[in-house]
Specification:
Blueprint: E1 10-14, H1 19-30, E2 34-39, H2 42-52, E3 55-58, H3 64-78, E4 83-86, H4 101-128, E5 133-137, H5 150-169, E6 176-182, H6 188-201, H7 205-213, H8 224-235, E7 246-249
Parallel strand pairs: 1-2, 1-4, 2-3, 4-5, 5-6, 6-7
The protein binds NADPH dihydro-nicotinamide-adenine-dinucleotide phosphate (NDP).
């Protein structure tokens, strides 16, 4: 039987316990990778780790000290990091004139500054690895403005700037740096958006879900497994010439 393409490689996934992170774990595991799953809540991390034989490490990615400790723990158990999936993120919404500085800071800290800190914490390993891979989970909100989510869109635009700069800076090495840009995906984050829209507008949850689903050109939510599949594909040795790409997985919304 042919060896799995990511056999023996260590994949660290932030936000690995739920949604897109858990789907990435499934696909990276299927390709043979060893998993380290990071997040704040241990229960979902442990459930994913039990399914795929990975390890669950508690970490709030807005705290650089916790990132350092968690990455060290992951290295101790799984070896140097070959594949880093920067996926942890949060969304909030508010009309711009009501957007608070606190909300702005929280979104930027979680979606952008944490990506910088996680990348810094792993870059030494990634550059030493044969075929190191850094994949950011960005968004269609990285590509265009989003009403009522200026902070989220700004953080996700910033993520693409970071991705493209690192891809250019390390182009002559065996590390590639890419992003996936999903449309609305069927995950807990979208469930929370549905609840928020329903609460703010007074519409039923069904109507709110239909409105959000309708924002994808396909008229359906993206399956998180589809995102996990592309993340794992970007991590393959054969993907070494995909560098600096922002892969939209949105049913045609950004077309
Ligand atoms: P989830 O809410 O399921 O996943 C978000 C994950 O991030 C959770 O596992 C959460 O774990 C983790 N996380 C959040 N804040 C922190 C923190 N401070 N420290 C550590 N971990 C944290 O939703 P998705 O799977 O949809 O989201 C994953 C990524 O996909 C996000 O970056 C999101 O912006 C992006 N995305 C989502 C889209 C969608 O429609 N759902 C569309 C486009 C992009 P815990 O709370 O336990 O810490």
């Amino acid at each position: 039987m042919a060896e799995s393409p990511l056999s023996g490689r260590h994949a660290l996934i932030t936000g690995g316990g739920t949604g897109i992170g858990a789907a990435a774990a499934a696909h990276l595991h299927a390709a043979g990778a060893k998993l380290s799953l990071l997040g704040r809540r241990m229960e979902p991390l442990q459930a994913v780790a039990e399914s795929y034989g990975g390890i669950a490490v508690g970490c709030d990615v807005t705290d650089a000290g916790q990132i350092g400790n968690a990455f060290d723990e992951a290295r101790t158990l799984n070896g140097p990091i070959d594949l880093l999936i920067v996926n942890a993120g949060i969304a909030e919404s508010a009309p711009f004139h009501k957007m608070t500085r606190e909300s702005w800071d929280t979104i930027i800290a979680t979606n952008l500054t944490a990506a910088f800190e996680c990348s810094r914490a792993a870059i030494g390993d990634l550059l030493k690895s044969d075929n190191g891979r850094l994949v950011f989970v960005a968004s269609v909100a990285s590509l265009r403005g989003v009403p009522y989510a200026a902070h989220y869109a700004a953080s996700k635009h910033g993520l693409l700037g970071l991705m493209r700069s690192l891809a250019a800076e390390y182009a002559k090495t065996s590390l590639t740096v890419n992003a996936v840009c999903p449309g609305y995906v069927d995950t807990p984050m979208t469930d929370q958006s549905v609840a928020r829209v329903s609460q703010i507008t007074g519409r039923s949850e069904g109507d709110a879900r239909a409105a959000i689903t309708g924002m994808n050109a396909s008229g359906r939510l993206v399956d998180p497994q589809a995102i996990g599949n592309v993340i794992a594909m970007l991590c393959l040795p054969l993907s070494r010439d995909i560098n600096g790409a922002a892969v939209t997985i949105d049913g045609g919304t950004a077309a």
